[in-house]
Amino acid sequence: MTTEPGSRGDRPLLRVAVPNKGSLSEGAAAILREAGYSQRTDSKQLVHLDSDTGVEFFYLRPRDIATYVGEGTLDVGFTGRDLLIDSGAAAEEVLGLGFARSRFRFAAPTGTDYTEESLDGVRLATSYPRVVGQYLARRGVTPRLIELEGAVESSIRLGIADVIADVVETGTTLRQAGLQLFGEPILQSEAILIKHTGRDAMPTAYDTLVRRLNGVLIARTYVMLDYDVDNDHLDEACKITPGLEGPTISPLARDGWYAVRAMVKRAEAQQLMDQLWDLGARAILATDIAASRL
Ligand SMILES: Nc1ncnc2c1ncn2[C@@H]1O[C@H](COP(=O)(O)OP(=O)(O)OP(=O)(O)O)[C@@H](O)[C@H]1O
Ligand SMILES: O=P(O)(O)OC[C@H]1O[C@H](OP(=O)(O)OP(=O)(O)O)[C@H](O)[C@@H]1O
Ligand SMILES: [Mg+2]
After folding, report:
1. What is the rounded average pLDDT of the residues 5-20?
2. Which of 23, 68, 95, 153 is the most buried (most CB within 10 A)?
3. What sequence ranges are listed for the domain ATP phosphoribosyltransferase catalytic (predicted)?
4. What is the ipTM metric for this complex?
């Protein structure tokens, strides 16, 4: 028998559930690739072993992933926070991954005046009955839940529901269906990594996966800023770019000048570069971080 590098005998070191389609699948494969794991090359492939790391990936329906992880069949999985809660599976969130962000909201035809408290006995269509049922039960409200697979926004026009609770990203689908939001946001969702609840003894490959994913998230969130500044403005410049643990300061060959290097939030980089320029800093460069371990 041949042994794959990174695996023990024919058993993979870690078995990971990855969404095979829908809003989560591309983002999950992309973050795994960025974290250095190979992914399937054909969308019909059900299983893929990354032989360098001994991690085996199972491509499954997004809704089923929490069930597999909750049953302990697979070690970890990529899913949505809303899907995890709706599953009721014995699985817990390990890490928010920052993509497939959405809000889960109530909506009703424009011009109506539904409130959360008015939903007792009202026909409420949703693909997430447990999320909605639990949320309203905490408020002592019991709607008539109508469970649908998707295209929930059409259910009111088609006469099978009075209100809906569904995933909202831009709000375009709601608007096109002539619906308006009401009530509070039920939950904010995003892609997450999950593991079995209460399973503490995880393989080393799990720690490596989490560290690598965290590294990608940091690399996506931050850029490296480099600039030159003179001694008179060094302290002020370091206040603008304190970095994570303090900026790196190196003397330049030019007398009285320093090179400074610090990580800054990508979203703030342009504004910080303007501030540094106004202060007298020059040769200000922002560089992408390809990967990180902090
Ligand atoms: N338009 C959207 N924008 C961002 N996230 C979304 C959007 N639609 C669904 N999601 C998220 O995707 C996850 C659901 O994935 P799932 O594959 O079951 O549905 P989907 O992406 O709507 O795909 P499909 O309806 O084509 O099967 C949930 O976490 C949900 O919050
Ligand atoms: O706020 P928006 O940007 O319009 O996005 C939200 C819509 O996207 C998803 O639908 P999808 O296209 O996946 O179809 P589905 O309802 O059949 O799942 C979700 O279920 C909403 O309907
Ligand atoms: Mg959908």
Report:
1. 76
2. 68
3. 61-214
4. 0.96
